Every structure is written in structure tokens, then in C-alpha cells.
Amino acid sequence: MDVSKSKKRKRTVAEASVAPQPPKKTRDEDSAGEEEQPVERQEEDDPASADEGDDSAPEEVPEGGASLLPAVSDPKTFRDLELHEKTLKAIDEMGFSDMTEVQRRTIPPLRAGRDVLGAAKTGSGKTLAFLIPAVERLQEARFKPRNGTGVIVVSPTRELALQIFGVARELMKHHSQTYGIVIGGANRKSEADKLSKGVNLLIATPGRLLDHLLNTKFVYKNLRCLIIDEADRILEVGFEDEMRQIVKVLATEDRQTMLFSATQTTKVEDLARISLRPGPLYINVDEGQQYSTVEGLEQGYVLCDADKRFMLLFSFLLRMTQKKKKVIVFFSSCNSVKYYAELLNYIDCLVLDLHGKQKQQKRTNTFFEFTNAEHGILICTDVAARGLDIPAVDFIVQFDPPDNTRDYIHRVGRTARGANARGRSLLFLQPNEVGFLSHLKEARVPVVEFEFPAKKIKNVQSQLEKLIGKNYYLQQSAKEAFRSYLHAYASHSLRSVYDVHKLDLAKG
Fold first, then answer.
1. Which of 6, 79, 218, 493 could form a disulfide with 195 if both were Cys (CB 3.0 to 4.6 A apart)?
2. CATH number of 10-21+291-502
3. Could you tell me the pTM of the whole model?
């Protein structure tokens, strides 16, 4: 897209918002006193459970039937696949019939036993693409709790792990196999007890998984599938050494590996080399597509001076609240999220907040509260930007700049998720930051300029100054947020665009 002035199409933000719509902490850490996460269908009265924690005690997994190819050569619906009736019933109850492209291209080779390295845009239906073959393999092998863990799904964040766990729970509701989750911040002893009794499908974050592999006595010698989701994100947040150890510990003879990554970096290639068997199938559903973001996503930006940024955001969020829209707003730091949540709620613009400094149970409760809400506003850091499937998000707002175009794409991927879904995104840019548009163009991201009429911006600056001046707590929170904003800005990877020395601090 040409971002020159003569070529730009302008629409108002207000117009865009009402246009008719077509039919962290990054490492796992134990946190004493946190509420434990459930492991479903634990058969505690199973007579075999007394010695399930001993690798030598459980029986070997029975030989299941051979993995099946689709019933038709070009499957388009889940019914076209040779899936177990229990799986099909669950999929029907989840409301799915037709497969997405990543599901059409990924499930058949995975059912045939191939190792797969997959690249797909966020919101493409990837979770079901890897869970369905995994659940089918457990069913075919007739896994029981005493057989231990047959499938492990590794996820970069606790929130994404909880989300995958929720999908697995729906998919396996008619199956007898057990499933569970182990994540930092949950009760480790409770997790260990349940692992020892037998968790057939396990979802985990890397640090906590490695902890249990090294220190908890549970059965994983019968492992059939290792699934590494959002591999690039796992490596970005510093789990490279843990993943190498996990792959080494889980080096079972019959292990199939599925590795999914939104981007293919050198580190991802290295991880694929040590985890996948020779001759893996590479599937990239994004090849040949015109744009790097999904269809159905209308993307815009607004140019705004530093001293008008919050007033514009406040005015926009009030309008979204009145129209009962569902909005996610991204900030660059935990302190910024904390401050703006306090400020907005104080001035009767009700928001939820999610960031890495919160305790795990608080983050979990907030995530599910917003997920289940029909409308509302969530302000957050990038802890929520990858992989999370929050339904029916109408607008993504990037108040603070993403670190690069890849992070931009991940953020806007929280809306327009799934087939025929619609969504909108709004990027705040200061006049000195317009150079980011050329980076978006290079990354094949189509954006247009939105204008917000000045008469619709609520001028609350003087009231805010009085409020913060009288409220010591808000004043300290504002100072911490501003320091964190400057620190994040100064460490931006695109320093030619986001130059901290060009910020107008007098206006900010």
C-alpha cells in the first residue's frame, strides 16, 4: 500500500466503528497459595492407580489400529475424515462442520503419522488442527490412566495453556482418556499427585513441564505425540535451554512431533532439527496470500500528538462502551496497564486489566471474565497478544507501539478470528512515528488512516490533572507508568522510527 498523502484513503474512527458488519511473567515460577488447576477425569479408584507412578508398573499401551487417511481425497468437512464418533460428536457440539485451511492441510498427514512443521496465521483454527489427531491417536491406542501420558502440548504462556486446555476439555468430553494441565503459579504438589495417577493428554508451559519431568515420578515412556505450539514465542521468552532438555528427555522411539510457529526463525529451525524425525512435512498456509493479516480485518491508524493521546483513547473507549463493543487495548508495560486501569475505572470508564505482574489466579480470572463477556474493555500487555482465542472481539487498539511488525500482526490477530469473522484495529501514531507505516507496507499489512473529529474528543485534561494532583496513589502510579513507557520506548527494536530523543516530553 502506498502511504503517501495523495494515496491514503481516510475514514473517521467513529465511522469505522459503526460501519455495518457482514453476516507476565514469562518464566514459570511456583507461587505458594495459588489455586490449583484441575486435571479432569482422574480415576482415583482405579485398582491400578496404586502403582501408576512407577514406570515399571503400568502395562504397555495396546497396539491401536493404523492411523487412517481421509475417507475422501480432498476433505473439506470433519465428516470427510475417518474420525471416531466420539470425536465427531464433540466437534458437532462445538459448532464446527467445515474445516479451515490449516485443518484441511494438517490433520490428514498428522493422522497418517507424519511429523509436521506448520506455519499459520493466528486465528486459523490451529488448536483443533493438532488436538484432533492427538486425541484420535490416544483413542486408537486405547489409552488408560495407568498407561500414563501419551500426548504433551507445550505452550509459551499460562493463558494460552489454559485456553488449549479448554478446547481439549470440549473435544474429549465423550472420550474416556484423561487430560490435565501443569503451569507455573499453580499448586505443584497437586499437579504431581494427578500426574502420578495418569494424565493421558497433558498441556504444559516449558518450565513447569521440565520440573515435573525431572522431579515427579510419572509415566511418560508411552508418549505418542509431542506438540510444540507457538514455538517462536517459546524461544523468544527464553525457554530455548528448557526445550532442548524436554526434547531430549522425551526421546521415545514412537514419538510423533508437531511443531507450530507463526514465524520461521533460526532458533525455530534449530528446534525443529532436534525434535522432528527426518523428512518432516512443512505446511505453510500463508504462502501466496496477498496480505500477512487475515481477511475480514479492517486496519487503520490515527495520527495524534502526545498531549491528545489519552483524551482520544478515553473518548473512543466511551463510545465503544456505549455501543456495547468488545475491545482490547495494548500497552507496552505492566506499570502502564496498572495506571491506566486505575485511572479509567476512577473516571467511570470500566475496564479489566491483564499483565505479567499479576498473580496467576488473578490473570486466569480476568481472562475468563473477558472471554465470557459479550462486551467490555480489556487493557493488557503483550502477555495476551499471542495465541489466545477470545471470541467476538470487535476492536484492537494499539495505544503503545508494538516492538516490530511481527508483534503488530500478533496483536491484531486477537480479532477477526475464524472463518468469515470481521474485526477492526486502530494503531496510535505520533507525528514522529509515521515511518512505521513503511515497515507495515513491507510486511504486507494494509492500513488506512482514520480521522477522529476534534469535536468528539472529550477535553478532560484539566480535570485529570486536578484528580491526579489530589490523589497521591494515582500520582505515584502515573510516575511509574511514565518511566516504564520511556524505558520501553528507548529499548524499541525499530529505533530509527521510535527514537526516544524525538519524543515531545513536554506534551507527554
1. 218
2. 3.40.50.300
3. 0.64
What's the rounded Cα separation, in Å, for the pair 103 and 120?
10
Q: What DSSP string runs through 198-234?
A: --SEEEE-HHHHHHHHHHS----TT--EEEE-SHHHH
Burial 100-120 (b: 16+ CB within 10 A, else e): bbbbbbbbbbbbeebbbbbbb
**55-284 maps to which CATH number?**
3.40.50.300
| Alpha carbons 183 and 206: distance in angstroms, whole number | 8
Q: Could you read off the pLDDT of 69-98 as tens digits, one per residue?
A: 444 457 889 999 989 999 999 999 999 999
Question: Do the domains 10-21+291-502 and 55-284 sit in the same CATH topology, yes or no?
Answer: yes
C-beta separation of 181 from 203 below 8 A: yes
Highest mean pLDDT among 76-85, 199-208, 445-454: 199-208
Q: CA 487, 493, 495, 497 torsion: positive or negative?
A: negative
Q: How far apart are CA 16 and CA 32, in angstroms?
A: 46
d(CA 164, CA 171) in angstroms, rounded, equals 10
Task: List the chain domain ranges.
Answer: 10-21+291-502, 55-284
